[in-house]
Amino acid sequence: MTDFRPPETHYAQSADASIAYQVMGDGPVDIILVPGLFSHIEFMHEMPGYTAVLRRLSRFARVVTFDKRGQGLSDRMTGAPSLEQRMDDVRAIMDAIGSAKAVLFGFSEGCPMSVLFAATYPDRVSHLVLLGSFARSKDRLPDDVWQLRCDEIVQSWGSGDTVKTVAPSQATNAEVIAQIAKFERLSSSPGALRTLLVLNRAIDVTAILPMLQTPTLVLHRTGDARVPVALGRAVARSIPGAKYVEYPGGDHYYWVGETDAMLGDIEEFVTGHRDGGDAELDRVLATVLFTDIVDSTRSAAAMGDHRWRRLLDDHDQLAQQVVGRHRGHLVKSTGDGILATFDGPGRAVRCALAFGSAARQIGLPVRAGLHTGEIEVRGADIGGITVHAAARVMSQCGSNEVLVSRVVTDLVAGAGLKFAERGAFELKGLPGTWELFVASG
Predict the structure, then answer these.
(1) Are β-strands 338-342 and 283-293 bridged in parallel, bridged antiparallel, or unpaired?
(2) Cβ contact 372:286 at 8 Å
(3) Residue 381: its H or E element
(4) Which regions in the chain score pLDDT beneath 50?
């Protein structure tokens, strides 16, 4: 295994349409994720945070994602699908995977359809989770404002402009904007999008909400820039016995921003508990990268505090940019280095090489060590043997080198990276001898 490989895409036949879906996990309950305005189940795995959310849910459930007809990898069509057709599509997927009863997790425009499905087929829905929900689409914007906004969305489609409302916390991140732009283009054409926007404008399930008998959890972010929080609160008030939870933040996408509390609330709602020990949920496979500025103490003394501080600021900014570009997570700065994690060892090695090259250009020689294994997630920090091992690997580095453990070379075989044997070492505090390799592009 080199980088993460997404689940295989399958197709369910719903009347005359083929509906693309993916399945992750094999837990005792099924969760069907009902998408919002647009989706592309394969490309979405390229978007930071998305796969991590699905993995977290798949620890206690079988998680199913799909593209509604007319979008993504599902059959294209003239016009836009009605709520009834979209219900048929969900039913077809459930039948295809042998799911008699499932949790429906509706997101944004997917919430009204989920409500209608749960009311129509109560025997097939165990729980209903609604995130960023509304009952009547016209409540979101007055008619004149909506028409202008509709025109703006269609005219700018494919540029990533929707980032301003779906992920405002990332609105200045050029890489994220480029990803969302591609996401838009892959999901739908501008003309098909306009048809869908007009159809969605007519959605109104207000009268259905009081009839729901399915246990329901309504979730919303207080500053949601796409669906005002007041609409989510109104949905929760209208559903008998519904539980309502509000989170800080303004991002609309469920995989952007802080997600831990939300995912814990969903697990507790569905299963009755939040993995009490946290041990399993907080241990994940990752490639850990440690870097260090060579001879930093001597350089600081030679430059003086003011100049050294400015150089360190440049170093930290550079680290953030390079790690982000390689889809890693910058855990923290260590003063004269960084600690970062990656879900793909190939990206981790390429990041270390790129960072070393960039650091040299600003006059900083760095060394980097990498190891892949299980880490313990402790809030914003990480721990465990893998972290210690990566630090020990780095300690064997020379200036401007990237040193990796044997497990890293095994995992990236065939990825186009080159490694030279450095030898076998005893690493302080770790058992046995460790074969280390110098990486190059």
Answers:
(1) antiparallel
(2) yes
(3) strand 381-383
(4) 1-4, 276-281
